[in-house]
Amino acid sequence: MKVHNFSAGPSILPTQVMQQAAAAVKELDGSGLSLIEISHRSQAFIDIMEEACALALELTGLENKGYKAIFLQGGASQQFLMVAYNLLEKKAGYVNTGTWSNKAIKEAKLFGEVSELASSKEANFNYIPKGYSIPEDINYLHLTTNNTIFGTQLKEIPSTSVPLVADMSSDIFSREFDYSKFDLFYAGAQKNMGPAGTTLVIIKEDLFGKVSRAIPSMLNYQTHADAGSMFNTPPVFAVYTSMLTMRWVKAQGGLESLGEKNMLKATLLYGEIDRNSKFKGFAATEDRSEMNATFNLVDPADGEAFDGLCKAAGISGLKGHRSVGGYRASMYNALSIESVEILVDCMQTLEKKY
Ligand SMILES: *Cc1c(COP(=O)(O)O)cnc(C)c1O
After folding, report:
1. Which of its termini does the chain have fewer beta carbons within 10 Å around, N or C?
2. How many CA atoms lie within 13 A of 154 on its CB side?
3. Are strands 164-167 and 279-281 parallel, antiparallel or unpaired?
4. What pLDDT does residue 102 have?
5. How many angstroms is it from 80 CA to the middle of ligand 1?
């Protein structure tokens, strides 16, 4: 039976990418060697890393605009501290839109003053705060563009003259977007790009050397940018697979075309959540994420029946995060609209039969 993978992360990747990645583990491009047993200093791997960095800049429209793309380890969670280590001289502003921004705030406080400019905590993060004022004297403003757990997504980037930093782990490459609004953004690979193990960071070169403190080499963006992400052994499998996904994104027509598909999927599902008397959405309508839809049953007693219907239809990974409960349907780039249709069918069957 076909499984419909709605997991929030690690999550679905294009079938073709999976097949190519699996083949490369056996043998990389007729070389007689596996991807995971060649030197990262070999020409074959240097080409892979260079292509991955170039594709990341190309897809985000940032080629020749003074940005560097680098692939690091430590997950998006390590970026919570690296951002502050490298950029926070005195004070930074953070918008608290949920678990991940909260963790970023906690790390930043180790390096300087952190001003929480806005928060939606009082409503269990079911909306994106807007209209807050942004001080001029902060080193940067940190945003989370998509809140994977709560299912909210930033639709408009606040306008400010201070550098903007964004955690884009769960919506990178998901829509057409003016990425040049950001001075630095990062994304753990395992949501919309590849397997866990690498994090893409795209950084404006004029952010290097911004703080007076000494930064350990491994935690310094400049080290990795100067070394072409090869300062130490990179996570070769994660970078290669991410590179394959970026090739796939480009072949699908790029972000514009994927953005349209993602919008169709989200419109279909939210339409059913709103129509169906058995369900209610969690996030504020105007802030709903196109990547992660969070919803609950009106009557929790229907849980067993709905879970049974989903299981029988091959739906996997739909359980909501414990801080929201209910359900979360993650609809990353590789999830087909057919999978969303199957989920909608299950929702309609529940309404009809129970
Ligand atoms: C998953 C996620 C993280 C954490 O990523 P790790 O790679 O596990 O550290 C951070 N931010 C967002 C928005 C996420 O979705």
Report:
1. N
2. 26
3. unpaired
4. 97
5. 10
pLDDT in tens, 251-271: 999 999 999 999 999 999 999
Q: What is the CATH architecture assignment of 15-251?
A: 3-Layer(aba) Sandwich (3.40)
Rounded to whole angstroms, the Cα distance separating 177 from 26 reads 37
Can you tell me which atom of ligand 1 is nearest the CA of 78? 9
Among residues 191, 248, 265, 278, the one annotated as catalytic is 191
- DSSP assignment letter at 158: P
Q: Which residues contact 285 (CB under 8 A, 6 or more apart)?
A: none
Q: How high is the pLDDT of residue 33?
A: 97
Of all atoms in ligand 1, which is nearest to the CA of residue 199? 7
Atom of ligand 1 nearest to the CA of 190: 7
Placement of tokens 């070169």 in the chain = 205
Percent of the chain beyond pLDDT 90?
99
Does ligand 1 lie within 6 Å of residue 171's CB atom? no
Say if residues 329 and 293 touch (Cβ distance below 8 Å). Answer: yes
Residue owning the nearest CA to atom 3 of ligand 1: 76
What average pLDDT does this structure show over 204-220? 97
The Cα–Cα gap between 194 and 170 comes to 12
Place of tokens 């080193």: 139
100 is catalytic: yes
144 lines ligand 1 (CB under 6 A): yes
Residues 241-260, mean pLDDT to the nearest whole number: 98
CATH of 254-353, one of 3.40.50.2300, 3.90.1150.10, 3.40.470.10, 1.10.10.10: 3.90.1150.10
Domain range summary for the chain, segments of one domain joined by +: 15-251, 254-353
C-alpha of residue 289 to centroid of ligand 1, in Å = 16
For 262, residues 6+ apart whose C-beta sits below 8 A from its C-beta are 174, 175, 290, 291, 331, 333
Given this model, what pLDDT does residue 28 score?
Answer: 98
pLDDT digits (tens, 9 = 90+) for 39-52: 999 999 999 999 99
Residue 77 CA, ligand 1 centroid: distance in Å: 6
Q: Per this entry, what is the length of the chain?
A: 354
